[in-house]
Design brief:
Pdz3 Domain; 396 residues; 21 strands; Thrombin, subunit H; globular; eight-stranded antiparallel β-sheet; seven-stranded antiparallel β-sheet; alpha+beta; 18% helix
Length: 396
């Protein structure tokens, strides 16, 4: 900057050039830090590989309803008292936690002739119905998803706590929420009892059961507490609202259960923060969210009613707002062609300050406000464009 400015003809030009360069530099920083908001599914979590959308695009005139439903196990007399011992919790919930493995396979006439030396992935799952539906993380079984293009050459296996094994069928998956459902055909399956994650409190004791580091350590039980609720965690272009826990969660625990002191599943273990010097930062998908998604995966094979505004944006901090005289909110960086945002008249450079009547100051605010709605809902959006406020109607 100093070298360029020395070549300018007068002080007035120097000041003008410096201000313009500063503005451009700051805008470059903003654009470079773009975060995607509730947008398209583009890349597979954790693997970095390109994965196609986990289900077909919904079209109103297509007969997509399979007619299948899940019958979850209801709380009964077998419910443990609140504050039961870890031993009792493990005995009750442990049989419902399974191991899951995907491997490349050479199929010929329905017979597996050969398997890859190393599995593609190993993880955990939760039996959620007596007729064989198993809930897990999408990243555990993503290569078995027909939409990934590898389903026909991947063997999907489930290993029960009682020693039984079975080949599983991929039912449906949703990368945006990192959840999937697979199905096994076996008798006398021990379905887990699902709790109510909305009743959780910070500090409440919890137990995690899963298969850390693979099937050799199947059924591992760890203990901790609910460290925090409603944590918004970003993984690439995906935002998840999660339960934070200090119960040990390691690779292989993914898809396993986080369980309350009544022996009820209240979360699906999904993420661990792996940074040198950092311990006790694990995250689970609330079971209330997972149940709704699982029901749609069984019925449609994908999540049909997810809302999407169709924008990419960057939150404007209080500091940047003060520097440039801009309102706090979400600076729109890109608008998807054909999206609800485009049809509503939202343009690149607009600042979203209100969504569905809620003030928007951060990506988290926008995510939570959008998630409260379903596809097809109409919401009021307030924007600022060149200093002028505008109210628009957006169909999600």
């Amino acid at each position: 900057m100093s070298n360029n400015r020395s070549n300018m003809p007068d002080n007035r030009s120097k000041g003008s050039f410096a201000f313009t360069a500063t503005v451009l530099a700051l805008l470059a920083v903003i654009i470079a830090g773009v975060l995607c908001i509730a947008f398209q599914e583009k890349r597979g979590a954790e693997t970095g590989q390109t994965i196609k959308q986990s289900g077909p695009e919904y079209k109103a005139n297509e007969p997509v309803d399979s007619g299948k439903t899940i019958k979850f196990k209801e709380a009964g007399e077998a419910v443990l008292e609140k504050g039961s011992s870890v031993v009792d919790i493990a005995k009750k919930a442990g049989p419902s936690i399974v191991g899951i493995r995907t491997s490349l396979a050479d199929f010929m006439g329905g017979i597996i002739r050969g398997l890859s030396e190393k599995p593609l992935a190993e993880g955990s799952g939760i039996i959620i119905s007596e007729d064989g539906y198993v809930l897990t993380n999408y990243h555990v079984v993503q290569f078995a998803d027909p939409a990934a293009g590898t389903g026909k050459i991947v063997a999907l296996e489930v290993f029960l706590a009682d020693g039984r094994q079975a080949r599983a069928e991929f039912v449906g998956g949703d990368r945006m929420n990192d959840l999937a459902v697979v199905k096994v055909t076996l008798d006398n399956l021990p379905a887990a009892e699902l709790g109510d994650s909305s009743e959780l409190e910070v500090g409440e004791p919890v137990v995690a059961i899963g298969n850390p580091l693979g099937l050799e350590l199947a059924g591992t039980v760890t203990v901790g507490v609910v460290s925090a609720l409603n944590r918004i965690v970003a993984t690439e272009d995906v935002f998840l609202r999660l339960i934070q826990t200090d119960a040990a969660i390691n690779p292989g625990n993914s898809g396993g259960a986080l369980i309350n002191s009544r022996g009820q599943v209240i979360g699906v273990n999904s993420i661990k923060v792996s940074v040198p010097g950092v311990e006790g930062l694990g995250f689970a998908i609330p079971i209330n969210d997972a149940k709704e998604i699982a029901e749609q995966l069984v019925k449609y094979g994908y999540v049909r009613d997810r809302p999407s505004s169709g924008i990419k944006g960057k939150e404007i901090s209080e500091v940047f707002a003060g520097l440039f005289g801009m309102p706090r909110g979400i600076l729109v960086i890109d608008v998807k062609t054909g999206s609800g945002a485009e049809k509503a008249g939202i343009k690149t450079g607009d600042v979203i300050i209100s969504f569905a009547g809620k003030e928007i100051k951060s990506i988290k605010d926008f995510y939570l406000a959008e998630k409260e709605h379903k596809r097809g809902d109409t919401v009021d959006v307030e924007i600022v464009r060149r200093g002028e406020r505008k109210k628009l109607k957006l169909v999600l």
